[in-house]
Write a structure and sequence with these properties.
Distance between the termini of chain A: 16 Å
CATH architecture of chain A: Orthogonal Bundle
Largest sheet of chain B: 6 strands, mixed
Number of strands of chain B: 10
CATH topology of the largest domain in chain B: Rossmann fold
Number of helices of chain A: 11
Strand order of the largest sheet of chain B: 6-7-8-3-9-10
Structural class of chain B: alpha/beta
CATH superfamily of the largest domain in chain B: P-loop containing nucleotide triphosphate hydrolases
Number of domains of chain B: 2
Number of strands of chain A: 0
Helix content of chain A: over 70%
Oligomer: heterodimer
Radius of gyration of chain B: 18 Å
Radius of gyration of chain A: 22 Å
Distance between the termini of chain B: 34 Å
Helix content of chain B: 25-40%
CATH superfamily of chain A: MetI-like
Number of domains of chain A: 1
Largest sheet of chain A: none
Shape of chain A: globular
């Protein structure tokens, strides 16, 4: 409810600005114009197609980053030689913006899904690696000792002890990875995608001065991000680390 | 055959201040189903000794055997209970925690849940099978830990001051419960504590250790009938004898 309130206030301020006449209506369209653009794109199914394409790229890029990042991060946290080998690479690659790779990936793989997904993968990998790495090192040693006494070795020790023990960090990593992926995918689509995707919609609308379409796509990007952040990750956290008492609610 | 045989075990480690001898030439053996307590002040190496029996640490010299087999690491023949309440896995229910060892052993789900529930009944926590550890009190968590260590039916139960962090009333209650669990399961127990009254209440025999280096100072057999009366003259006499060994 509080969230709806703050969003409503922000929208109201925008509408006041749009109607003030300071900017041309074609550049800063009012909310009704944006809503009409959004509605017509929802009605003809094109917005769904674009959002679907974007979500598909995020799902693949983020899925790949989460899987590999988790494995690599935990390996680095549990085994010193891996940490010594990979940490300098992480430190060098992490500061490079994922979009800086766009021209390179386009050159190698052409315009389209592969380049876009790789950019998303690149952006999402580092938060996952770093959080899994920290999480694996923060595992309470007594759990490892107890698990060892009960015969846990290798894969069972990894999946049934280390991963759940590091889950507050892993979830936090997944959350940050999604945010990075969601930011990266829009930029990647502007540069590397052709014909579909929310980022491409914005970039394409610029050519025709369709500010209402651009802002409608921005609204959809924000809305999907909001749903994931608040609903998907919130629910995931409540069902796991909060239920297990590994994370507590902040004081009211 | 002796269940546990500790023969000439020593351990030293290097510190910035030089080489410190944690244990020096410690030897003893347990009889089957014996409840053996090890008491001593902090620094006497009693926890180190337990960790070596558990297989977490290797002795620098000497040998430890369980039922004739040399200890080379952890094994299903031993169950371990620690002092720290945090030893339970917070992401598993009480039942899930107790079933963990059986799961590692490859026991099918239905079977391991049946056994785990049986073990929870033994520590009177069957009603809390679905509870997560953070919803249980410290005493209840330690009871789950005991059930967990017993679930895969080890020959030996190793306990490192499991009740030291509990309040006095809960501790007494837990000691009574442990004495009953031991009577029912007939495990060989090695129980490390710094609490002399606890050792007299629980042990068939008490080994007294002294620090710097950790050595066995005395061995006292407790021949009191069970359940023991902590206020009886004989009980207090045993306590006095042990205290004499500790301070003397």
């Amino acid at each position: 409810m509080k969230a709806a309130m703050s969003i409503a206030v922000a929208l109201l301020l925008y509408e006041v600005l749009a109607r003030s006449g300071v900017f041309a209506a074609a550049l800063v369209p009012g909310l009704p114009a944006i809503a009409r653009a959004l509605w017509s794109m929802l009605a003809d199914g094109s917005m769904l197609k674009h959002a679907g394409a974007t979500l598909y790229r995020v799902a693949l890029g983020l899925g790949l980053a989460a899987t590999l990042g988790l494995a690599l991060g935990v390996l680095m946290g549990r085994w010193r030689p891996a940490e010594r080998f990979f940490m300098p690479l992480v430190s060098v690659l992490m500061p490079i913006p994922s979009l800086a790779w766009a021209p390179v990936f386009i050159l190698w793989f052409g315009l389209g899904d592969v380049a876009t997904i790789l950019i998303v993968f690149y952006a999402a990998s580092f938060p996952m690696v770093l959080n899994a790495w920290t999480g694996a090192r923060a595992v309470n040693p007594i759990w490892l000792r107890a698990a060892g006494a009960m015969g846990a070795r290798g894969a069972a020790l990894f999946w049934k002890v280390v991963v759940p023990a590091a889950s507050p960090f892993i979830l936090s990593g997944l959350r940050q990875a999604f945010q990075r992926a969601w930011i990266a995918v829009v930029g990647a689509e502007m540069l590397a995608a052709s014909d579909y995707g929310l980022g491409w919609v914005i970039f394409d609308a610029k050519e025709f001065l369709n500010a209402d379409v651009m802002l409608a796509a921005l609204a959809v990007i924000g809305a999907i991000g909001f749903v994931f952040e608040r609903l998907v990750f919130g629910a995931l956290e409540r069902a796991t680390v909060q239920r297990w008492g590994m994370l507590r609610l902040a004081r009211p | 055959m002796d269940t546990i045989q500790v023969a000439g075990v020593s351990l030293a480690y290097d510190t910035p201040a030089g080489r410190v001898s944690a244990l020096e030439n410690v030897s003893f053996a347990t009889e089957p189903s014996e409840f053996l307590c090890i008491v001593g002040p902090s620094g006497c190496g009693k926890t180190t000794l337990l960790n070596m029996i558990a297989g977490f640490l290797r002795p620098g010299a000497g040998e430890i055997r369980i039922a004739g087999h040399a200890v080379g690491g952890e094994g299903f023949d031993r169950g371990v209970v620690f002092q720290d309440f945090a030893q339970l896995f917070p992401w598993r229910t009480a039942l899930g925690n107790v079933a963990f060892g059986l799961e590692m052993k490859g026991v099918p789900r239905a079977e391991r849940e049946r056994i785990a529930l049986e073990q929870l009944r033994l520590v009177r926590l069957e009603k809390f099978a679905a509870a997560y550890p953070h919803h249980l009190s410290g005493g209840m968590q330690q009871r789950v830990a005991i059930a967990r260590a017993l679930a895969y039916n080890p020959a030996v139960l190793l306990m490192d001051e499991p009740f030291a962090a509990l309040d006095a009333m809960t501790r007494e209650e837990m000691q009574r419960l442990l004495a009953e669990v031991w009577r029912e399961t007939r495990k060989t127990v090695v129980y490390v504590t710094h609490n002399v009254a606890e050792a007299v209440y629980l042990g068939d025999r008490v080994i007294v250790m002294s620090p710097h280096p950790g050595t066995i100072r005395a061995e006292v057999r407790i021949r009191l009938p069970r359940p023991r009366d902590a206020l009886s003259v004989e009980f207090l006499q045993h306590q006095k004898e042990l205290l004499g060994h500790l301070t003397g």
